[in-house]
Amino acid sequence: MKIQTRQSIYSSVAFGVVFIIVSFLVYVLYADKAKSVVYKNLEKTANLVALFHLEEDELNSKEFEKIKTQFEEIVSETSYQLYNESDNIIFGNKNEKIAPPVLQKIREQQSFNFLTATNFCHGIFYEDNQGDFIIITKESKTYLDEQLISLLGILALALIVGLIAVVLLSRWLSRVAYKPISNIIKQVNNFTPTTPGTLIESPNTKDELQELTNTFNRLLERISESFVIQKNFVSYVSHEFRTPLTSMQGNLEVFSLKDRNPKEYEELSQKLVLQIRQLEEILNTLMVVSDLRKNIDLNNQFRIDELIWEIVEKISVHYVNPKIDVIIDILSEDENILTITKDRTQLLMALFNIIENAIKYSEKTVDIRIYKESAYLYLSIRDQGIGIPIEKLANISKPFFRGDNTNRIQGRGIGLSIALRILDKNNIKYEVQSKEGEGTTVIIIFHEP
Questions:
Q1: Hey, which of 44, 146, 344, 377 has its CA 20 to 30 A from 333?
Q2: Global confidence as pTM
Q3: Which CATH code, of 2.120.10, 1.10.1200, 3.40.50, 3.30.450, is assigned to 3-162?
């Protein structure tokens, strides 16, 4: 069942229940009020009958004439009864005699409302110089019953018309209210795996629907990013594994062509060990990228300047005369700030990747500066290379991402993303500043404020 249909049903049921409750209250209150009015009129009539029949001798002719006129206009012979002390009817309708227990109750209470099979009745006890009397006035139930039946008919008709109006109105309102949802559904149905970067147009409703749409768009962005990562991941793995595997296969094939002496076996073993270690390094790199490595506490104390010199030495093995300028701007009394407690292996990998990137993308000197600022240890790695376009700067932490201006330089976009992910995992703050054509600066804060 669609939400619109369910909402229409819920609205109709809610309206019906509320209307029935309100109608019941209206009916009960109206019936009670109508009966109260009837009994008050009967009480006035009873007093008028008493004045007409029992007070003629005490009223002047003018006053009695006025009472007589009212009596003739209001009271009919069948609408009242006047009983004496012996419970005999001396005036009024003599056909329907009231039971003695009721008459006695009227004498006790002075005034009493009661019902018969066909009438509303009101009785009063009246003391006079001629004796004690009971006056009972009556009004037929027929008129009030007809009014109540008419009221029920009006309420029933109003319920039917109201339900029809609510159903039609709720269906119209639901179409208007759920139109943004329908638009979102259409957009989602048009999504295909070949368009992972497509986002849902925000309804701008300033409500939960817009919040849901924005949340879904963020999910789509992550899914789109995953598509790109998966695509580049396969390319990266095939590229990185192919070189050592091809070399190992070629060495073994050539080696198997003829018998070899022990020295040649030793040389082949050493080559294979180096290539296996290369594969292991690639696997370790992939584990860091995918966060598959367990969070084992491997923190230890070491000096950051010693780590930088070790990285410079390793880079010098891979690059001919790399242009690196290391400046340690730390006073002797602050030398203890150089000692940090982190995962040395991971930090070595991160800083190696950052410095290697700076060398690869810059033909000028890479400046590495270690300094103290506001009592915290800072490391700055600045190159004067091609830089990162400002619109691409937000993507640098994504694995396998490469800027458009790096196509001429070999790589798979793995280095900087690994470095930044390692820094995040070790709770080390960093800042990347870059301008296209001028270079990139990575500032690392080891003791965050």
A1: 344
A2: 0.46
A3: 3.30.450
